[in-house]
Design goal:
The complex is a heterotrimer of chains A (about 325), B (about 525) and C (about 325). Chain A is an all-alpha fold and about 325 residues long. Chain A is about 70% helix and about 0% strand. Chain B folds into two domains: about 240 residues, P-loop containing nucleotide triphosphate hydrolases (Rossmann fold); about 130 residues, 3-Layer(aba) Sandwich (Rossmann fold). Chain B has 18 helices and 20 strands. The longest helix of chain B has 16 residues. The radius of gyration of chain B is 25 Å and the shape is globular. Chain C has a single domain, classed as ABC transporter involved in vitamin B12 uptake, BtuC (Orthogonal Bundle), CATH 1.10.3470. Chain C is about 70% helix and about 0% strand. Chain C is built from 14 helices and two strands. In chain C, strand 1 and strand 2 form a beta hairpin. In chain C, helix 1 runs parallel beside helix 12, helix 2 crosses helix 8 and helix 6 packs across helix 10. Classes of the chains: A mainly alpha (about 325), B alpha/beta (about 525), C mainly alpha (about 325). Chains in contact: A-B, A-C, B-C. At the A-C interface, helix 6 and helix 14 of A face helix 5, helix 9, helix 11, helix 13 and helix 14 of C.
């Protein structure tokens, strides 16, 4: 039998560098060391726990982003930040600071989020609107929903039980939030690696035509991916609410770009079909440490935005090249 | 004596696991119409594209007028005086005919603004020679996409001629033309020959080759077999060159074939197809029963793949139906077809059959995992591994680890994975589209054994193959398709390679080969 | 082959549907806005149309080439804040500011083009990334709204010549600029590359260079949009372009250009942009409560994008 061959699609294989998770982890450690050198105390225990806590919100939002990006075909969900914001706003208003209302509040928030994801999924599959455009448009709609729902003024308050679940220290002075992130992360890994949905998702992302010709229900898988993406964003919104206790109208908006960047840093291919959540989680940590470092260096929000864009561009040129016309 | 106008030698090109060209070449002179012949997959188109600059070869030299030429892209080819007409149309449907003909070399005034009149004149002049093919009215201002396929092909030829080539490559340029259009094209080609142009002509239609060409170079398996003077050659000789001197019929006794793996669901089934029509498929009817291997023959691209896709719910059926054991097969959805017991091993493994970057495990599990999942959702790693391992052992797939991407396997083993994923789903009907394309000899025999085993176990098997020897070895009956319809049915005693080739080329059945 | 294997070629709206939408939008708007046909109302309406019309033309060119530019809005922002910082209320420096805005647009477009054509990144993601670079830089240049445009410019912008609003003349000028471009070899190649890049490559079209040109032209129109915004509002705003990107895509779709590329034209997009601007007007004059305006606006944009997909839906049913 002949030696193993690198067969089609070669470009995708060639573009894929092994071990992106380890690489991203090394970058995170390096950034922490740089931070400590520049500003002693950056790598202190309390500081690191704090960074991890900030990373957790991004990490939960990026679960859904990982799912839609793995689904391939230009799949992405730019509305995650806005959906998280909306979910927190609904949760806050329904909870109104009362533990008795937690269950209906969370249920309603997630239901609304899932419905938004469903619309995204239908637009992308049945109406064939490019995912970037569809979910970008959804941002405007959700923003409109937020204004209509709040009248421009968010009300309510997180239930105390939610706040203590998120902020309360469990062991080693670690907040509950980190354990919730761990739990959701494990759920994401299970979903991707040990369910028919996960395997169908990778198949659809790796080769949509072959998936269809293998009897995979492609559209159903894609729609479910967008529903899950919005639902995880909604969960992240609830967690943010527990952390901040009260909400404002653009609470989670700024997670849009980092959620995509975290996925890419973690080694999930934007072309779809390759990747996983562990990498995304590390990616979320890398980005958070980077933000922390930039803040420490007294670099303002404007330049941080520029840096974010450049980081994404650099990552794309490492991982996201397309085929040549000439063969 | 001056050197020949075109000399290509030692040209090699590998696509993934397939060696498309393995030292091909040809020599041709000015004022010649030179045919490039060979069976399906012999590398003719790849050789054409190498000359035209859209494929960069791994090795080989091209000499024009004796001087070594480097063709790194279509622009280089143009500078050398080469223009090509491709098998797959390269007209841009949204542009008008005029815009297509001058595309890339638009006449312009100052600052790059288009000179529409000059463009129209140039396009008109190029298309004028084909006026007869357009009933006298040249469609210069119509979108090219609105023309029929034959007319688009003519536009394509006109576009190449507008580039005033010294070497004109016509790759299956007559495939979509009507008889009258072919006549017009041939007149133009003869004019070009008289003007000293070299025309490289690739066609499956031997009658056209004899009618038009002076010499022919024959390719087989990516190698040049020889060049012949057509005036001194007959069809029999050409077919023999194309097929090769290997009349040995593999014995169909199961004893010396590898042990037959037992895989398919037991029982008996009947698949009845009645008047099935779809895109590129016209009114196809036949019946196949359990244990039978029905072969699909004919030239490549005569509707064989479309037929298999239509049976699998992957193509839009416009009329007719397929009935499996009295129940109509679902028309619109491969997912439903799969659940009804149909399996398709598609023709383009890389694009349609496998998930190159995904592990072997997932590739094998995908079609059948719903049967083993708890609540149709939760997978048990051990059960999936057991299922995959059983198939790896049954089909003798040579792998390192189930976790390796399937792309790390050889072509033959990749194909076994694609077949294996379906066998785990215990299908009643197995559709195979060219299952041994790009597969080495040893793996080929093993895949043959799998196919025989499927039939022996009671599956309905339909096999399309571009390899006539394969059809001869495996089929109980062969339907020869031509332009989407069943042209001829060959019973077991009538199946031979020669008969398949002559039938595919539409030579009269009684004609001696 | 049809069915699961068919590649979705561009679905697009017919010119008739585009014009019908314009007529309906004008009729509804005129019935709701009491003085719609007054010269003051017309002038101020057209004044608000120009920025969207300009960016829609730019987006059309990129879409025709088979790409999409999600950074156009950020380019508008960056070009406008650079210009406003330079002009700073002085008419003398206005030409310099115009040149700077155009330079910014061309440079941003060139960067996008290089990233897409030479690094071969997916256009949507690549321009998504560059949009953050541009909008971040805009915040660096002008952290908070401010700066002023010389009043001569804002006055001239809202003036009219022989009863015709200057802003309408600017829209006509943009349309004429498109018509001129369409007669240029680069635009022909843009159509060919967007229609079938492989065929274009085989036909000697310089595919990579053509793609760069498409983004550069997109940047040019973004800069023109920025100048119109400055002339209309009179001051700079580092968030001014945020909403424009998506609106430009919606205008392209309404205008009948296929998002798959190669088919359509900027004429339709000009109408599409006007329809969208009229819808914003209608929402205002229809007494939609303030809190619901954005929702209605967002829904309209999504519906416009969905319009492009309806033929695909019908085809699916027929199948």
């Amino acid at each position: 039998m002949s030696a193993p061959l690198l067969d089609t699609p070669r470009g995708r294989l060639a573009a894929w560098r092994p071990g992106p998770v380890a690489l991203a982890g090394a970058v995170a450690v390096a950034l922490v060391i740089v931070g400590e050198l520049v500003s002693p105390g950056f790598a202190g225990y309390g500081q690191l726990v704090n960074l991890m806590r900030v990373a957790a919100f991004l990490g939960v939002i990026a679960i859904g982003q990982t799912i839609v990006i793995i689904a391939g075909g230009g799949g992405v969900d730019l509305s995650v930040g806005k959906v998280a914001t909306f979910s927190a706003i609904i949760g806050s208003r329904v909870m109104a600071g009362d533990d008795a209302n937690i269950v209906p509040a969370v249920a309603l928030s997630l239901l609304v989020a899932a419905a938004i994801g469903l619309v995204n999924g239908l637009g992308v599959t049945l109406l064939r609107i490019p995912p970037f455009v569809m979910t970008l448009g959804m941002i405007g709609v959700v923003q409109g929903l937020i204004l209509a729902y709040t009248g421009g003024q968010a009300e309510g308050r997180a239930a105390p039980a939610l706040t203590s679940l998120v902020n309360g220290r469990v062991i080693f002075d670690l907040p509950g939030l980190l354990f919730l992130w761990l739990l959701l992360g494990l759920l994401a890994v299970w979903l991707l690696r040990r369910t028919t949905f996960g395997w169908n998702l990778f198949a659809v992302g790796a080769n949509r035509t072959a998936a269809s010709l293998t009897g995979v229900r492609v559209n159903r898988t894609l729609i479910l991916a967008y529903v899950l993406s919005a639902t995880f964003a909604g969960l992240a919104g609830i967690l943010l609410l527990g952390y901040t206790e009260s909400v404002f109208l653009d609470l989670a908006d700024q997670y849009m770009l980092p959620s995509v960047a975290a996925v890419v840093i973690g080694g999930t291919l934007l072309a779809g079909g390759i990747g996983g959540y562990a990498g995304t989680a590390v990616g979320a940590i890398v980005l958070t440490v980077l933000q922390g470092l930039l803040t420490t260096l007294d670099i303002g929000g404007a330049w941080r935005t520029v840096v974010n864009g450049v980081v994404l561009l650099v990552l794309l040129s490492l991982y996201g090249r397309q085929r040549r016309l000439r063969s | 004596m001056s050197p020949p106008l075109l000399e290509m030698s030692g040209v090699r090109k590998r696509y993934g696991g397939v060696q498309a060209l393995d030292g091909a070449g040809l020599t041709a002179v000015r004022g010649e119409v030179h045919a490039l012949l060979g069976p399906n997959g012999s590398g003719k188109s790849t050789l054409d594209k190498t000359l035209a600059g859209t494929v960069v070869p791994d090795a080989g030299t091209i000499r024009i007028d004796g001087a070594e030429a480097s063709v790194g892209g279509p622009r280089d080819a143009h500078a050398l005086g080469v223009a090509a007409v491709y098998q797959q149309l390269s007209v841009v449907g949204d542009l008008t005919v005029t815009q297509n003909i001058v595309l890339g070399l638009e006449p312009a005034r100052r600052f790059g603004f288009l000179d529409q009149r000059a463009a129209r004149d140039r396009a008109g002049a190029a298309l004028e020679r084909f006026a007869a093919a357009f009933a006298g009215r040249l469609p210069l201002d119509r979108p090219a996409g609105a023309l029929g396929p034959g007319e688009q092909q003519i536009v394509e030829v006109a576009k190449a001629l507008a580039r005033r080539p010294r070497i004109l490559v016509l790759d299956e340029a007559t495939a979509s033309l009507h008889k009258e259009q072919v006549d017009v094209l041939f007149d133009v080609v003869r004019e070009l020959r008289a003007d000293g142009v070299l025309v490289l002509f690739t066609s499956h239609r031997l009658d056209e080759v004899f009618a038009l060409c002076d010499r022919a170079t024959v390719l087989r398996n990516g190698r040049t077999v020889g060049t012949v003077e057509l005036a001194a050659t007959d069809e029999d000789e050409l077919v023999r060159l194309m097929v090769g001197d290997a009349p040995h019929q593999a014995p169909r006794t199961p004893s010396d074939a590898p042990a037959t793996p037992s895989v398919a669901a037991p029982g008996t089934s009947t698949l009845e197809v009645r008047g099935l029509s779809a895109d590129r498929l016209r009114d196809v009817s036949f019946t196949v029963r359990s244990g039978e291997v029905l072969g699909l023959g004919g030239l490549q691209g005569q509707g064989q793949s479309e037929l298999l896709l239509a049976l699998f719910g992957g193509a839009r059926v416009t009329a007719g139906e397929a009935v499996l054991d009295g129940r109509p097969l679902p028309r619109s959805s491969p997912a439903k077809a799969a659940r009804a017991g149909v399996a398709l091993v598609p023709g383009d493994r890389g694009r349609q059959g496998m998930f190159a970057v995904r592990p072997i495990q997932e590739n094998l599990s995908l079609a059948s995992m719903r049967r083993r999942a708890t609540g149709r959702l939760a997978l048990r790693a051990a059960a999936e591994r057991r299922a995959a391992t059983s198939m790896v052992e049954r089909l003798r797939i040579k792998i390192g680890s189930l976790a390796d991407p399937v792309s790390t396997l050889s072509g033959g083993n990749q194909q076994k994975v694609v077949i294996g994923k379906w066998l785990l789903d215990r299908p009643r009907v197995v559709l195979l589209d060219d299952p041994t394309k790009g597969v080495d000899v040893a793996a080929k025999e093993e895949i043959y054994a799998i196919i025989r085993g499927l039939a022996a176990d009671g599956a309905v098997v339909i096999l399309n193959s571009s390899d006539n020897r394969e059809l001869t070895e495996l089929s109980d009956r062969v339907l020869v398709l031509f332009e989407g319809a069943v042209a001829e049915e060959l019973g077991a005693d009538a199946i031979s390679e020669r008969r398949l080739v002559s039938s595919a080329l539409r030579l009269a059945p009684g004609e001696k080969l | 082959m049809t069915g699961v294997l068919d590649r979705v070629r561009g679905v697009q709206l017919s010119g008739l549907a585009t014009v019908a939408m314009l007529v309906v939008a004008v009729a509804v708007n005129a019935s709701l806005q009491p003085n719609f046909w007054d010269s003051y109302a017309l002038t101020s309406n057209f004044a608000t149309f120009v920025p969207l019309v300009a960016i829609a033309v730019g987006q059309t060119i990129v879409v025709l080439s088979g790409g999409l530019d999600l950074s156009l809005g950020a380019q508008v922002t960056l070009a406008s804040v650079v210009a406003v910082r330079i002009v700073d209320g002085s008419l003398d420096r206005y030409p310099l500011a115009v040149a700077a805005a155009l330079g910014v647009g061309l440079a941003c477009g060139a960067l996008n083009g290089l990233v897409v054509a030479l690094l071969r990144l997916q256009p949507i993601v690549a321009t998504f990334a560059t949009s953050f670079v541009y909008s971040g830089l805009a915040l660096v240049v002008l952290p908070t709204p401010g700066g002023s445009v010389p009043f001569e410019v804002t006055t001239a912008y809202r003036d009219s010549v022989l009863g015709v609003p200057v802003a309408l003349l600017l829209i006509v000028a943009l349309a004429l600029l498109w018509l001129v471009l369409r007669r240029h070899r680069v635009m022909r190649h843009v159509y060919a590359v967007g229609g079938d890049a492989d065929a274009a490559y085989a036909s000697l079209v310089p595919v990579a260079r053509t793609r760069v040109w498409a983004y550069v032209l997109g940047g040019l129109f973004a800069a023109l949009s920025a100048l119109a915004i400055l002339a209309n509002t009179g001051s700079g705003d580092p968030f001014v372009g945020n909403e424009l990107t998506l609106a430009s895509v919606a205008a392209v779709v309404i205008g009948g250009t296929a998002l798959a590329g190669g088919r359509g034209g900027a004429g339709g997009s000009v109408i599409g942009a006007i329809v969208l601007a009229l819808v914003a007007n209608i929402i205002f004059f229809a007494d939609v409560p303030t809190d619901y305006r954005q929702l209605v606006n967002g829904a309209v944009i999504i519906l416009a994008l969905a319009l492009a997909g309806i033929p695909a839906l019908q085809k699916r049913r027929a199948a």
